[in-house]
Design goal:
By secondary structure, this protein is α/β, with parallel strands linked by helices. The protein is built from 6 helices and 11 strands. The strands form 3 sheets. It has a 6-stranded mixed beta sheet, with helices on both faces. Strands 2-1-4 form a 3-stranded antiparallel beta sheet, with no helix packed on it. Strands 5-6 form a two-stranded antiparallel sheet.
């Protein structure tokens, strides 16, 4: 991201969210994006994933200027280059775990018969092979989030964006989720995880804090107030 600026309009007034923000993330790295609610973390992720466009500045992913993408090129970028994990898993409750993961390939046009094996392999990677045939509503919150990670990774994205994926989980389960995201970088996937939990920052390759629309020095967990 180069000199990225983003405003939102409310009641006829424009409010800045990001102000001339610069950020570079290396391939295959795990970056934690810290900040309070409303600081702009989700907006930054939305710009990186081409769900929104900046008012000013450039956003490049793997050498592609995503702000210039339109139509089918934009759709292809969102489907093949970017994977998403949100605070809630977003699984379809009556589908099984393997069906939920396979769906990510199905929407890309892959025949159903070619989706199941990769989906099972993705579940195996997150430790849920034995739960593949369980419906989503039969899984615990942590298991659902692991299925969501498998769904995001099954298509082999270059960039995985995780927006508060541990926000509704207990501490131990949250750390398991972070470990899975870190494992994803071994295959070359770049992971950006937004969180307000600074205690998790030690698990990342790098942590940055966003405040008032800009990146500011990130305090270490040891020096942060309790």
């Amino acid at each position: 991201m180069r000199a990225v600026t983003k405003h939102f309009s409310v009641g006829g007034r424009r409010f800045p969210v990001l102000s001339g923000l610069d950020l570079t993330v290396e391939e295959g790295r795990l970056l934690f994006l810290l900040g309070r609610s409303g600081s702009g973390k989700t907006t930054l992720l939305s710009l990186a994933g081409a769900l929104d466009r900046p008012d000013e500045g450039d956003v490049l992913v793997n050498g592609t200027d995503v702000t210039s993408l339109r139509g089918r090129s934009l759709y292809a970028f969102r489907q093949s280059t970017v994977g998403w994990v949100f605070q809630t898993s977003g699984l379809l409750p009556l589908l099984t775990a393997v069906e939920n993961v396979a769906l990510a390939l199905g929407v890309q046009g892959l025949p159903l018969g070619q989706c199941v094996d990769p989906a099972r392999e993705a579940l195996r990677a997150v430790g849920l092979e034995e739960r593949a045939e369980h419906r989503a509503h039969e899984l615990s919150g942590g298991e659902q989030q692991r299925v969501a990670i498998a769904r995001a990774l099954v298509k082999g994205p270059r960039l995985l964006l995780a927006d508060e994926p541990t926000g509704q989980l207990d501490t131990e389960t949250g750390r398991e989720i972070v470990n899975l995201l870190r494992a994803a970088t071994a295959g070359g996937t770049t992971v950006i995880m937004a969180t307000h939990d600074a205690t998790l920052a030690a698990s990342a390759d790098r942590a940055v804090t966003i405040a008032d629309g800009r990146l500011v020095p990130t305090p270490s967990p040891e020096t942060s107030p309790a």
